[in-house]
Structure formats: C-alpha cells, structure tokens
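Folding follows sequence. Below is one example:
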Amino acid sequence: MKQILCLAGLAGFAFAVGPVYAQPVNRLDNASFESEMINGLPDDWELFCPVAGDGGELSRAGRAAFATDESVYHGGSRAVRISSDKPTRCAVLQRSIPCQAGEKWKFSVWMKGSGLGVGGDAGAIARVSFLNPADPSRNAALTQRSASVRSESADFDWTRLETAGEVPADATVAQVELFLWKGKGTVWFDDASLEFAAPASSRAPDRAGKLRSRNANNRLTGQPRSGERVIFMGDSITEGWNLRAAFPDQDFVNRGIGGQLTWQMVSRFPQDVLSHKPDAVVILAGTNDIGGAMPPEIIVSNIRSMVEAAKDAGARVVVCSILPVTDALATPASPQLVRTAKRPPGVIREVNALLRIMAEDEKVSFVDLHQALADEHGALPATLTVDGLHLNPDGYAVISPIVLKAIQSGRKS
C-alpha cells in the first residue's frame, strides 16, 4: 500500500509564475538512483556520517552498509538502501545544489522502512540543509533553517514524505541528506526531488566544479609549453599553493578547488587535467573526505582512479599524503578551529598508509608530506598554518622542494 504524507502544509504551496520564473526543475542529479554505482555508492551521491555532537561515536559504531537495491524500489528499477545492525548515523548526501535567497523550494522523497528504531530521535530522516561555502561563519545559523521529514514507525511500505519552504538569506547552496538516524534497521529511499521556483536564467548544477576552470582551460589550450607541463589536482590546500612563486620558470598548472571531495576531482579530471596532456600530475587530496567521514577505502579508490587515468594518458604521477592538522589555534571564541574532531589523526594516518600501498601497487611516486610537516606529536606546527588545516607561506616552503624533487626524479634523461 502506498501512502501520501504531507508534513508542511503543501496545499497552499505554489511557485511564482510569469516571465521572470521558469518551470520548477528537480535540481537533484540521479534522483531515482538509476545511474551506475561508483565505488559502492550511487553516482552523484556520497557518504555522509557527521561527527558533531557525539564525537562520531554513532557515525562509526554502525558502519552502515550502503547499496542500490534492484529488488526493492518505488519507481524505475533501483532504490538506495541503508542498513545497520547497530545504532548509527549515516546518510547518502548530495551537496552543492545551487540556490538563491528567497527562492521557493519543495522537497519530496519516497521512503520504506524495516526494523527501524522508533521513539526519541531514532529512525530514518530526509533533510534539506542550506549553506554558504564562501562564508562559513554564516553556516551555523543557516543550518538552523534546515527542514526534515522522518519515519514514524519501525516498519512501513513506500510512503511519500514532503516539505517545503523558502531559501534563507545568505544561503548559496543546498544539500540533501538521506539518513539512517541514531537507530538500526533498514531504510530505502527512492525518487527524490528538490524543486525550486528558479529564475529562468538559472544554470544547471555544477557540483563537480566542471565549469570552474573552463575559461582557464580554454586559455591554457592555446598556450605554448615552456617546458614540462605538470598539473596539480586537489582541494583548497592545492588552490592556495602559489605555484608561480614556489616553482619559478616552470610550466606548473594549479587545478585545486576549495572544499572539493575526491569524487568531484575524479569527475572533472578529464577536462581539468587530461585534456592538457600533462607530462606529470601531482595529486594532493582527501582531507575533506575525511572531514565528511568518508571511508578510507573509498577515498583511496577515488585517488587510484585519477592515478590510473593519468598513467593511461602517459603522465608520471606523484601522490601526496594527506597533511596533518592541529587544534593549537582553537580558542573558546573560535571552536571551529578544533580540527581533529572532524579529521582524527588516526584516520589521517590510516588513509596515508593505504595511499602509500596504492602508490606502490601502481608504481607511482608517493611523497609523505605528513611526515615532513608533523611535529613530535604528529600535529601540524602552528607556525606553518593559518587555521590548523591550511598552510601558510612557511608551510608551503617546506613541501614545495619535496614535491619538486619527486617530479624531477621521474623525468626521462
């Protein structure tokens, strides 16, 4: 039996009409989970196990299992399934969905449950959150404007849950989280939708950042090489690396994008890296995945995908370890600078050990920047960082010659 459950008074919900607004469009990619699996997760979705509030105990305890289910689904031929035999708090998430303050939005998802916890906060939850990546100081207030729908019983057939609202001021992106929340059992999600009454000029989502470097890529295509072309792929640590200052007179290209996860880098790797036929590729990635509680195996698998693609294109590859972090700059007034809460040193070491093994298996260079930077306690020295996570010029001065040596050591004589 299929039911309709309305949780936000949707009878009065209507999008603006007229020439200024386009028809509402579902901005979720792979909303029905019909696309192929990538590294054990549905394409365009990622694992999300937040650690806030309990130090990550619930997120790690259950080690929830994720799969696309081809035997239980609402529409199409697949649904996403999350299950755990212990209480856990894990989700599949789609982030960086573009939105504008004041837009009307409507979210819906079909949910089915079996053996879920009930009472208190336990059960299954679908949540829409709003953020401002360019100004993280606003995110605490924005997350208070999140909206969610939840299961109301332990066992239930496919039920449609809905909620709606208006994008809060200062928000620039939304994200959708489909949770097994503080409980155990199995939940299926299918046919999700996040619609906005969007201005007609709105562009399609670009969650992987494929358009970010489009103009720079076009310029680079027409430029003559001034030597070996080396492309640096990564997140904000790479983006903040002044390659011209660190490597003068070298044809080194920066393709770091702040805040990115490894799956996004895999997605944009062909146009941001391979299209330029690099002689070598430097990959420094993974700290944001750890911050999002991505399993180490998935992080390494994504980086391996880039390594293999670069090798197939004939490029040498340098894989860098994930950098250490520190809480030394945190104060009562700046608790967000407690970096080890989301990036536990033990997890960083675990991922780095797996990266080393992967690099050896792929016969590419591995550079242990963690060891080069860490103090006697395994932390990033406060003198080398601006915020406990990102390097300052002195920090980049430590790693630049190490990476250059690795690049040069693989050159053919």
